[in-house]
Amino acid sequence: MATRLKLSDAQSGWYVMDLTTMTAGTGTVTAYVDGNPVGSLSGGGVRQTHGQKMFQASSGAVSVEITGSGIIHGPFNVEDPASKGRILSSTWVVSSEDGSDNDYNDNVSRITWFMSAG
């Protein structure tokens, strides 16, 4: 079972995604732009990290699909103090539950968006 969760509507720029698994079972996280897969990470093990993927979204909706029933925390924004609120980056933490203890820490993915230069 997997859950697809929408992150943003149209933030152009680069995204970096990682995956940490907290259980022995295998977890997977896949990123989509406009419904098309653009990157995936998979792995298993207690407190194991499984690398990073970088992808670009020039426009369009960004969503992620994660193993289990997922929830989103964020976005947590970093603003440019010199420009009165322009957002430089946003980070979402997507966590999921693939068992029955409802701790929502079985698969954890952090997706960070960086504003394109210009």
What do you see in this structure?
This protein has 118 residues and is mainly β. The relative contact order is 0.31. The chain has no helices and nine strands. 0% of the residues lie in helices and 69% in strands.
Mean of pLDDT: 90
Major sheet: arrangement of strands: 5-2-9-8-7
- Run of helices and strands: EEEEEEEEE
Stretches with pLDDT under 50, minimum 5 residues: none
For the biggest sheet, the summary is: 5 strands, antiparallel
Total of DSSP H or I helical runs spanning 4+ residues? 0
As a percent range, the share of helical residues equals under 10%
Question: How far is it from the N-terminal to the C-terminal residue, by CA?
Answer: 40 Å
- The backbone outline, from C-alpha atoms, is globular
Percent range for β-strand residues:
over 45%
Give me the secondary-structure category: mainly beta
DSSP summary, beta strand count: 9
Which key phrases capture this entry?
118 residues; mainly beta; four-stranded antiparallel sheet; 9 strands; 0% helix
